[in-house]
Specification:
The structure is a single chain. The protein has about 350 residues and is an alpha+beta fold. The chain folds into 3 domains: about 40 residues, no CATH class; about 200 residues, no CATH class; about 110 residues, no CATH class. The strands form 3 sheets. Strands 5, 6, 7, 8, 9, 10, 11, 12 and 13 form a 9-stranded mixed beta sheet that branches. A two-stranded antiparallel sheet has the order 1-2. A two-stranded antiparallel ribbon has the order 3-4. A hairpin with a 5-residue loop joins β11 and β12. α5 packs antiparallel against α6 and α6 runs antiparallel to α7. The chain starts with 6 loop residues before the first strand and ends with a helix.
Amino acid sequence: MPETQPIKGLGCPKCGGIVPVPEGQAVVVCPYCDMRSLVRGDRSVRRYQVTTRITREQALSALSGFFGNIAVARDARTKSRVTESFLVHLPFWTLWSRALGWAFGQKRVGSGKNSHYEPREVRLASDMVWAGAACDVAEFGVANIELTNQTLEPFNGDRLHATGMVFEPVGSLAEAQETAQASFDATARGSAGLDRLNQLFMRFVNRRFGLVYYPLWALRYTYRNRSFQVVVDGFTGKVLYGKAPGSTVYRAGALSLGMALGAFLIVDVPVIFLRLVGSSSSNNSSDASCVIPLVAIAAGAAAMSFAYRAFRYGEQYELNPARPKGGLFSRGQPKAGDSLGSAVKSITESLEFLE
């Protein structure tokens, strides 16, 4: 429905006349008795649409680049056949706001026995944008989008329906506002950069809530009688979600090299280091003789974990940035940095406890 055409059906609480409600207008005036009414709910939410800049050919080019990942089967680019390619416009609840506040806490400085916590005051001031899906997006795998420099236009339903499929919002506006506020609060706490947060005073000003229809290219293809799907951003051309057949060479190489590296770090590195420390005449290296072997063991365990997950779940490669992080052996493509970071963090906390 074009934005210039008002929505009819709201009855005036004073005279009972039909009051036209333009899209996105929160206060309306009865044309019969001049009574002003406040419109609440989805009808008063401003609607926008993002310009579609990526063509079908450009989306197919992004698919070809997606096949170039090292974890994807080497012949996927040549043996895959695109069966469907269509444009969809998905609605996303969006909240824009300016965050202002102060954070009071402590920051850890120094290292080892010389580390201590110093009191800090951090001033927070930044623009925040949150966007969450307003309908079921399980089919496309894109639950969130990043609205940064996208061009927003007034909502025009006729034009969107002429270019692709348009999904209408089915979620709760109140729940979306609560989720957006919780996300803003968590972002504000994380942006303080304090190791110990005592108090946080935040104010969110210039709040603006809206519904943004975002263009996405859905590309479906087959590879050796198996079906896969890739979703491409209709504004930037970036692959947001996708599945592809895994590379057998990558799985075998990751398993062999990861296990070999893990065994070397867990067994050889601590033994070599302890022998060097034992043959040294210095008696001031007791702390290092404890820390370095523990770090090597943690790094070896992380390497083995990465190798196992790459081999176990690498039969199908999946790009899904919105997937929540799982445990050590959760499904999906592994990230070595996650395993190593968790292991080193655990060792650091243990050493702090010993100190």
